[in-house]
Automatic annotation (TrEMBL), chain A:
Keywords: ATP-binding, Nucleotide-binding, Phosphate transport, Transport. GO terms for molecular function: ATP binding. InterPro entries: AAA+_ATPase, ABC_transporter-like_ATP-bd, ABC_transporter-like_CS, P-loop_NTPase, PstB-like. Transmembrane segments: none annotated. It comes from the Bacteria. This is Phosphate import ATP-binding protein PstB. Pfam families: ABC_tran. Gene3D superfamilies: P-loop containing nucleotide triphosphate hydrolases. Residues 14-255 form the ABC transporter domain.
From TrEMBL, chain B:
Its main location: membrane. It is found in: Cell membrane. It is a multi-pass membrane protein. Residues 72-280 form the ABC transmembrane type-1 domain. This is Phosphate transport system permease protein PstA. Pfam families: BPD_transp_1 (PF00528). The chain crosses the membrane at residues 21-43, 76-97, 109-134, 146-170, 191-212, 261-283. Keywords: Cell membrane, Membrane, Transmembrane, Transmembrane helix, Transport. The keyword Transmembrane helix applies. InterPro entries: MetI-like, MetI-like_sf, Phosphate_PstA. Belongs to the binding-protein-dependent transport system permease family. CysTW subfamily. PANTHER family: ABC TRANSPORTER PERMEASE PROTEIN YQGI-RELATED (PTHR43470:SF4), PHOSPHATE TRANSPORT SYSTEM PERMEASE PROTEIN PSTA-RELATED (PTHR43470).
Length: 260, 292
């Protein structure tokens, strides 16, 4: 974990400036500005309804699939604006993968779940696909558990396995960023611990943004923590600093359970 | 805080619960009984008539002893043709309504149109088909007039079933697909349609069954005669179906054995529908095992 004594060496991957998000008439996110560094884990915490999940979904524009939304201000990936920089949203979603709150494997075999993404991009060669599937399953620490039953349905796996399969599925298209929307909220403590361990390994070459309700989880897995409240960013800093010496009174109150 | 609320279990609510369960059970039983009596009566009357000769002979126009070979063929051929026309259109329209059309006024209007079309009495479609295809287009009483008009009966049902089945696909699955960089079309083809397949299939069978039993439309478009060659795949010849035959022999009254032929025809129809429904059950279970 990054400590206040060592300077940040990683470049900014995602940058947000004065960003507002409107859903219909309602302003859900208000004037957000923050930077997310490559190969770091950034946690977003805050009470329910503070807009953390909405914020996360802005990075891959997945909310556009189901409803009309309005984003103003700047959101950039590698210095290119996500909304106005001429980025194709389909390509963006390949680069910015997502793991959802509830494990959502396709009702297909384990193998087909992981191969789904590569197939979208025209990978047909069996050996290549086999390699991608094995690699993704190894990275998500699932390979040893499932290598003998790749043809079995993914819906028959345990919740924790399903969630790691969803991570493998996301990794199979070689994303640069992984967005995780409360990935452990439906899992038991053992499965949660496995996912958290995985996050630590994956950040070697991925930018990870994780929304979590669990403050201990944020403290355990993240390098940076951002505290949201009612659609506003109250404070963002190194996780170590947020949890020991927050600058804002509100952050401290939330972390110590005085409100929220 | 109000003091005296009793949270003791209420006797009455348990009694009503039990009474309701019994009543619903009784209703279901009554329905099955009616159905059993109905099917039993048809099969009982038709059974003595059913033999290989009846199924493989050509129909007679004046004498007793005619068969229903071409009618069986025409029925299946017309259902297949009408589905071949209505499936692509209905599927396409359903996909459009579920996945592409927004939530606006146009969609509501479109849905109203389709529901109206679905509720249109078949005799109205029959006369429309006769005026447009039989007369204006000059197709006369033929397989093609019948198939196209029958397709008009199928399209709204297939459209609606497709739309409803697609709307029932869990949002999480579509999100997962989009999240991996899938386009809308890829998501529809690879995630939504496979998931919706069993629902669409069930609707398709209901549609096929309805088309199979349809008489009014075919009396006015496919006619009450049949080609003398067998099997005749030409689209321009008249094609009397089983249900039309059933109606025709009983209302025309020139055949001495009209009653027996009607009973046998009805029994064949019931058996075909049973086989159709059962085979779909199996197919449905097969697909479900592979896609859910």
């Amino acid at each position: 974990m990054l400590s206040p004594q060592t300077p940040e060496t990683k470049p900014v991957k995602l940058s947000v400036r004065n960003m507002d998000f409107r859903y219909g008439e309602k302003k859900v996110l208000d004037g957000l500005s923050l930077d997310i560094h490559a190969e770091r884990v950034t946690a977003i915490i805050g009470p329910s309804g503070c807009g953390k999940s909405t914020f996360l979904k802005c990075f891959n524009r997945i909310h556009e699939v189901s409803s009309a939304v309005k984003v103003s201000g700047d959101m950039q990936i590698d210095g290119v604006d996500i909304y106005r920089g001429g980025i194709d949203e389909v390509d963006l979603r390949r680069r910015v993968g997502m793991v959802f709150q509830k494990p959502n494997p396709f009702p297909k075999s384990i193998y087909e779940n992981v191969a789904f993404g590569p197939r979208l991009f025209g990978v047909k060669d069996r050996a290549t696909l086999d390699g991608i599937v094995e690699d993704a399953l190894r990275k998500s620490a699932l390979w040893d558990e499932v290598k003998d039953r790749l043809k079995e349905s993914a819906t028959g796996m345990s919740g924790g396995q399903q969630q790691r399969l969803c991570i493998a599925r996301a990794l199979a298209v070689n994303p640069e960023v992984l967005l995780m929307d409360e990935p452990c909220s439906a899992l038991d403590p053992i499965a949660t611990a496995k996912i958290e361990e995985l996050i630590g390994e994956l950040k070697e070459n991925l930018t990870i943004v994780i929304v979590t309700h669990n403050m201990q989880q944020a403290a355990r897995v993240s390098d940076y923590t951002a505290f949201f409240w009612l659609g506003k960013l109250i404070e963002m800093d190194l996780t170590e600093r947020i949890f020991t010496t927050p600058r804002e009174r509100m952050t401290e109150d939330y972390l110590t359970g005085r409100f929220g | 805080m109000p003091a005296a609320i009793s949270y003791r279990p209420r006797r009455l609510s348990r009694v009503t619960d039990r009474v309701m369960r019994l009543a619903l059970w009784g209703l279901a039983l009554a329905f099955i009984a009616v159905l059993a009596v109905f099917v039993g009566a048809i099969l009982k009357q038709g059974w003595p008539v059913l033999n290989l000769g009846f199924l493989t002979r050509m129909p007679e126009t004046l004498d007793a002893g005619g068969g229903i070979k071409p009618e069986i063929f025409n029925s299946l051929y017309l259902v297949a043709l009408s589905l071949a026309i209505s499936l692509p259109i209905g599927l396409g329209a359903g996909i459009y309504m579920a996945e592409y059309a927004g939530q606006g006024r146009i969609l509501r209007f479109l849905r109203l149109c389709i529901e109206t079309l679905a509720a249109t009495p078949s005799i109205v479609l029959a006369l429309f088909g006769m005026i447009v295809f039989v007369q204006m287009m000059g197709w006369s009483f033929s397989i093609r007039s019948g198939a196209v008009t029958l397709a008009l009966l199928n399209i709204p049902v297939i459209t609606r079933v497709t739309e409803v089945s697609l709307l029932a696909v869990p949002r999480e699955l579509k999100e997962a697909s989009y999240g991996l960089g899938a386009t809308r079309l890829q998501t529809i083809l690879k995630v939504a349609l496979p998931y919706a397949a069993t629902g669409i299939l069930t609707g398709l069978v209901l549609t096929a069954g309805r088309a199979f039993g349809e008489s009014a439309i075919l009396v006015f478009t496919a006619g009450t005669n049949t080609s003398q060659t067998f099997p005749d795949f030409r689209l321009t010849v008249p094609g009397e179906t089983l249900s039309v035959h059933l109606w025709y022999v009983t209302s025309d009254g020139t055949l001495p054995d009209a009653r027996e032929i009607a009973a046998g025809t009805a029994a064949v129809m019931i058996v075909v529908l049973l086989v159709l429904n059962l085979s779909v059950r199996f197919l449905d279970r097969f697909i479900r095992r592979r896609t859910r």
